[in-house]
Specification:
This protein is an alpha/beta fold and 143 residues long. It has a single domain, classed as 3-Layer(aba) Sandwich (Rossmann fold). 25% of the residues lie in helices and 25% in strands. It contains four helices and seven strands, in the order βαβαββααβββ. The protein starts with 6 loop residues before the first strand and ends with a strand. The structure holds adenosine-5'-triphosphate and magnesium ion. Adenosine-5'-triphosphate binds next to α1 and α2.
Protein backbone atom coordinates (compact mmCIF):
# COMPACT_ATOMS: atom_id res chain seq x y z
CA UNK A 1 0.00 0.00 0.00
CA UNK A 2 1.19 3.50 -0.79
CA UNK A 3 1.57 6.02 2.02
CA UNK A 4 -1.63 6.84 3.82
CA UNK A 5 -2.12 8.99 6.90
CA UNK A 6 -2.45 6.91 10.04
CA UNK A 7 -4.10 8.09 13.22
CA UNK A 8 -7.51 8.74 14.69
CA UNK A 9 -9.94 10.69 12.53
CA UNK A 10 -13.36 11.99 13.32
CA UNK A 11 -15.96 11.23 10.65
CA UNK A 12 -18.78 13.68 11.35
CA UNK A 13 -20.90 12.65 8.40
CA UNK A 14 -20.99 9.85 5.91
CA UNK A 15 -19.28 12.21 3.45
CA UNK A 16 -16.21 12.11 5.71
CA UNK A 17 -16.37 8.31 5.56
CA UNK A 18 -16.53 8.59 1.77
CA UNK A 19 -13.42 10.78 1.70
CA UNK A 20 -11.55 8.23 3.82
CA UNK A 21 -12.65 5.42 1.50
CA UNK A 22 -11.50 7.32 -1.57
CA UNK A 23 -8.15 8.06 0.08
CA UNK A 24 -7.65 4.40 0.97
CA UNK A 25 -8.54 3.40 -2.60
CA UNK A 26 -5.92 5.76 -4.01
CA UNK A 27 -3.26 4.10 -1.86
CA UNK A 28 -4.22 0.53 -2.79
CA UNK A 29 -1.82 -1.76 -4.60
CA UNK A 30 -2.28 -5.39 -5.72
CA UNK A 31 -2.42 -7.78 -2.76
CA UNK A 32 -3.33 -5.19 -0.14
CA UNK A 33 -5.51 -6.26 2.76
CA UNK A 34 -7.73 -3.85 4.65
CA UNK A 35 -9.02 -5.13 7.99
CA UNK A 36 -12.20 -3.40 9.18
CA UNK A 37 -13.14 -3.64 12.83
CA UNK A 38 -16.19 -2.14 14.50
CA UNK A 39 -19.60 -2.85 16.02
CA UNK A 40 -22.82 -3.35 14.08
CA UNK A 41 -23.68 -0.30 12.02
CA UNK A 42 -20.47 1.62 12.56
CA UNK A 43 -19.99 1.87 8.79
CA UNK A 44 -17.80 -1.03 7.67
CA UNK A 45 -19.93 -1.73 4.61
CA UNK A 46 -20.30 2.00 3.93
CA UNK A 47 -16.52 2.44 3.97
CA UNK A 48 -16.12 -0.58 1.70
CA UNK A 49 -18.56 0.96 -0.80
CA UNK A 50 -16.47 4.12 -0.91
CA UNK A 51 -13.24 2.16 -1.32
CA UNK A 52 -15.00 0.41 -4.22
CA UNK A 53 -16.04 3.76 -5.66
CA UNK A 54 -12.44 4.96 -5.43
CA UNK A 55 -11.22 1.86 -7.21
CA UNK A 56 -13.71 2.56 -9.98
CA UNK A 57 -15.99 -0.39 -9.27
CA UNK A 58 -19.21 0.14 -11.20
CA UNK A 59 -21.28 -2.71 -9.74
CA UNK A 60 -23.40 -2.18 -6.62
CA UNK A 61 -21.49 -3.34 -3.56
CA UNK A 62 -23.78 -5.22 -1.21
CA UNK A 63 -22.98 -6.81 2.11
CA UNK A 64 -21.63 -10.36 1.64
CA UNK A 65 -22.82 -11.61 5.03
CA UNK A 66 -24.33 -14.81 3.66
CA UNK A 67 -21.69 -15.57 1.07
CA UNK A 68 -18.65 -14.48 3.16
CA UNK A 69 -16.95 -13.01 0.08
CA UNK A 70 -18.00 -11.16 -3.05
CA UNK A 71 -15.68 -10.12 -5.84
CA UNK A 72 -15.87 -7.09 -8.07
CA UNK A 73 -13.71 -6.84 -11.14
CA UNK A 74 -14.81 -3.63 -12.81
CA UNK A 75 -12.33 -1.34 -11.02
CA UNK A 76 -8.64 -0.44 -11.28
CA UNK A 77 -7.88 -3.53 -9.14
CA UNK A 78 -10.10 -6.52 -8.28
CA UNK A 79 -11.94 -5.99 -5.00
CA UNK A 80 -12.61 -8.95 -2.71
CA UNK A 81 -15.14 -7.93 -0.08
CA UNK A 82 -15.37 -10.27 2.92
CA UNK A 83 -17.82 -10.23 5.79
CA UNK A 84 -16.65 -12.87 8.26
CA UNK A 85 -19.33 -12.16 10.90
CA UNK A 86 -20.58 -15.75 10.62
CA UNK A 87 -17.16 -17.35 11.03
CA UNK A 88 -15.54 -18.08 14.33
CA UNK A 89 -11.84 -18.25 13.51
CA UNK A 90 -9.16 -17.55 10.98
CA UNK A 91 -8.90 -21.27 10.37
CA UNK A 92 -12.49 -21.30 9.10
CA UNK A 93 -11.61 -18.48 6.72
CA UNK A 94 -8.80 -20.56 5.26
CA UNK A 95 -11.13 -23.60 5.11
CA UNK A 96 -13.37 -21.77 2.66
CA UNK A 97 -10.38 -21.11 0.38
CA UNK A 98 -9.76 -17.48 1.25
CA UNK A 99 -6.01 -17.78 0.77
CA UNK A 100 -6.44 -17.51 -2.99
CA UNK A 101 -8.05 -14.12 -2.47
CA UNK A 102 -5.77 -12.89 0.30
CA UNK A 103 -2.64 -13.80 -1.64
CA UNK A 104 -4.07 -12.71 -4.98
CA UNK A 105 -3.55 -9.54 -6.96
CA UNK A 106 -6.67 -7.79 -5.76
CA UNK A 107 -7.56 -5.70 -2.74
CA UNK A 108 -9.19 -7.63 0.11
CA UNK A 109 -11.46 -5.68 2.45
CA UNK A 110 -12.58 -7.71 5.47
CA UNK A 111 -15.48 -6.73 7.74
CA UNK A 112 -15.24 -8.11 11.31
CA UNK A 113 -11.54 -8.73 10.71
CA UNK A 114 -10.88 -9.13 14.45
CA UNK A 115 -12.46 -12.62 14.18
CA UNK A 116 -9.82 -13.76 11.68
CA UNK A 117 -6.92 -11.59 12.84
CA UNK A 118 -4.70 -14.62 13.47
CA UNK A 119 -4.46 -15.40 9.75
CA UNK A 120 -4.02 -11.85 8.47
CA UNK A 121 -0.57 -10.52 7.57
CA UNK A 122 1.11 -7.96 9.83
CA UNK A 123 1.13 -5.34 7.11
CA UNK A 124 -2.66 -5.31 6.70
CA UNK A 125 -4.13 -1.81 7.03
CA UNK A 126 -6.39 -1.81 10.08
CA UNK A 127 -9.34 0.57 10.27
CA UNK A 128 -11.25 0.48 13.52
CA UNK A 129 -14.61 2.29 13.47
CA UNK A 130 -16.44 3.43 16.57
CA UNK A 131 -19.57 5.43 17.30
CA UNK A 132 -18.96 8.95 18.55
CA UNK A 133 -21.50 10.68 20.80
CA UNK A 134 -23.45 12.28 17.94
CA UNK A 135 -25.67 9.94 15.88
CA UNK A 136 -23.89 10.20 12.54
CA UNK A 137 -20.40 10.73 13.86
CA UNK A 138 -17.82 7.96 13.94
CA UNK A 139 -14.18 7.80 14.80
CA UNK A 140 -11.85 5.89 12.54
CA UNK A 141 -8.52 4.67 13.85
CA UNK A 142 -6.28 3.96 10.89
CA UNK A 143 -3.32 1.79 11.91
N1 LIG B 1 -20.34 8.96 9.45
C1 LIG B 1 -20.87 7.83 8.95
N2 LIG B 1 -20.07 6.91 8.39
C2 LIG B 1 -20.59 5.76 7.92
N3 LIG B 1 -21.89 5.45 7.94
C3 LIG B 1 -22.73 6.32 8.47
C4 LIG B 1 -22.26 7.54 9.00
N4 LIG B 1 -23.33 8.22 9.47
C5 LIG B 1 -24.39 7.46 9.25
N5 LIG B 1 -24.06 6.32 8.65
C6 LIG B 1 -25.01 5.24 8.33
O1 LIG B 1 -24.73 4.18 9.22
C7 LIG B 1 -25.00 2.95 8.58
C8 LIG B 1 -23.76 2.09 8.61
O2 LIG B 1 -24.14 0.83 8.13
P1 LIG B 1 -23.11 -0.22 7.56
O3 LIG B 1 -23.93 -1.30 6.98
O4 LIG B 1 -22.11 0.46 6.71
O5 LIG B 1 -22.41 -0.68 8.93
P2 LIG B 1 -21.59 -2.02 9.16
O6 LIG B 1 -20.51 -1.65 10.12
O7 LIG B 1 -21.21 -2.62 7.88
O8 LIG B 1 -22.68 -2.92 9.89
P3 LIG B 1 -22.67 -4.53 10.03
O9 LIG B 1 -21.94 -4.78 11.30
O10 LIG B 1 -24.12 -4.86 10.12
O11 LIG B 1 -22.00 -5.11 8.83
C9 LIG B 1 -25.44 3.27 7.17
O12 LIG B 1 -26.85 3.26 7.14
C10 LIG B 1 -24.90 4.66 6.95
O13 LIG B 1 -25.69 5.39 6.04
MG1 LIG C 1 -21.47 -4.52 7.08
Amino acid sequence: MKDISKGVFRLNTEEDTRRLGLEIARACEPGDIIALIGDLGTGKTALTKYIAEGLGVTEDVISPTFTIVKEYRSGRLPLFHFDVYRLSSGEELLDIGAEDYLEGKGVSVIEWADIVADVLPEDALIVSLEYAEDGNARTASVM
